[in-house]
Design brief:
Layout lengths: L8 E2 H7 L6 H9 L3 E3 L2 E2 L5 E2 L4 E6 L2 E7 L9 H4 L3 E3 L1 H19 L10 H18 L1
Helix pairs in contact: 1-2
């Protein structure tokens, strides 16, 4: 069947075809785990999806709200998959804001890829010894 002939598609197939999940089993697990809501309600993987339904999809830290604009049971390339839905403006703004907050939160953390060298170890030991003497 082509995209125009379909009137309803299982939600797990659609999520796979729209490239939200790599496999149908991952889509099913997400639906069963409550990560996918249709029009604000939890659903089963066998739920028939129709045009203009609102989906809320949670993937890790990211939550997307999309409107179904096309139906397909076949997985195709990413440009074609992007035509199956449109993300709401509020969802995009919220995702961008959360990304900025996560990035800002990580700026204060220094990530050292190496162990301290001999000089740095001596400084650490000196600092610890001085602070332990002051506490007594």
């Amino acid at each position: 069947m082509t995209t125009t002939e379909l009137t309803r598609v299982r939600i797990d197939k659609w999520l796979w075809a729209a490239r939200f999940y790599k496999t149908r089993s991952l889509a099913k697990q997400a639906i069963d785990g409550g990560k996918v809501h249709v029009d604000g309600a939890r659903v089963k993987p066998s739920k028939d999806l129709q045009l203009d339904m609102r989906l809320t999809i949670t993937q890790g830290h990211v939550q997307k709200t999309v409107l179904v604009t096309g139906l397909s049971e076949q997985r195709r390339g990413a440009p074609e998959a992007a035509l199956l839905y449109t993300e709401t403006e509020e969802s995009q703004a919220k995702r961008e804001q959360l990304a900025l907050e996560r990035k800002a939160a990580g700026l204060g953390i220094s990530h050292h890829d190496t162990k301290p060298n001999k000089k740095q170890r001596r400084q650490i030991h000196r600092f610890i010894n001085v602070n332990s003497v002051q506490d007594e």
